[in-house]
């Protein structure tokens, strides 16, 4: 694969004209921004910042996925309410870390033809990582339907190849891989999955036998595993296959995330080398175009009206993580100023302050649990919070257009 990438790299350059066009040996379209002025702004650092922020975000996504894998291993070694809760927390952290890297998938880069043929392009890989909405009954049992899903189809081997073949087999919602499959396996269709679903068969048999002994029943109720036995939903079967599926889908998720990270490695990564070979104006144009697509198509058209993390009831956190990723690119950190900081700090300080204030307001929409609500109410996203966050994102879209006008950039028409 490395030889293919190196060979294709000499033929393909960063394509600013639009996403998913056929590769062509054309130069990037020049951006209209004028970088004359204060030489201290060092506009060439825009390329470096784009590569740095993309690589760092993907490194963090992989590290969080490794933490998720470790938490799930602990859950399967010791299935109880505490390890299940830890796995759920790790899933939320991991998915948020991935979404903070999502911006860079909107860069108008054309993948090599060979990757597209092999199903390895960014958008093909994204489908294996983050397909939603999904049909939970395609994965595992639903209340009242204990024999549904891949888990309960004993004719289907749980190999990596088979799970990839089953992904989108009959319908886009027939999803067998990715974050939301793991989410369903950890929460269930109603957010109430019991950790007993992951007890090994021999453990269930042993616990059931011991609990039938009246002399040991009181002692058994004081242990986490026997407490699970009391709460096991009737009709839940195939725990061993469920365990195997959860392990397999988590391992494949990490493989797919690592594939994206490799493409942003500074010296060898295909995406990193394309950005490095572009002019600062072209890199800025690409990054601002990606920001526009993130706001308009991913947030306003898709995430905010939808329910992307429905099983865990944390969809609002998805939108916040996407905004955090955009904040890193636009405003950066103390050690790595963002793309807008050197361009606006001297000539447009008020506009820069608007960005800082508006992004801070949007990211302040974090959902807070209310102690006086029922579990069912907590599982339902707050309509008021969603409306408030949508309004903040619309303000960011307006601000993005104003900034593009100042910098004489053309944003893509995503409507």
From TrEMBL:
The keyword GTP-binding belongs to this UniProt entry's keyword annotation: no
InterPro entries, sorted: Imelysin-like, Imelysin_sf
Region: Disordered, residue numbers: 209-237
Localization, UniProt: Cell envelope
Principal location listed in the UniProt entry: other
Alphabetical list of Gene3D superfamilies matching this protein: M75 peptidase, HXXE motif
Domain Imelysin-like: 54-401
A Pfam match: Peptidase_M75
Signal peptide: 1-22
Residue stretches of biased makeup (Polar residues): 209-221
Keyword Signal: yes
Keywords: Signal
Protein name: Imelysin family protein
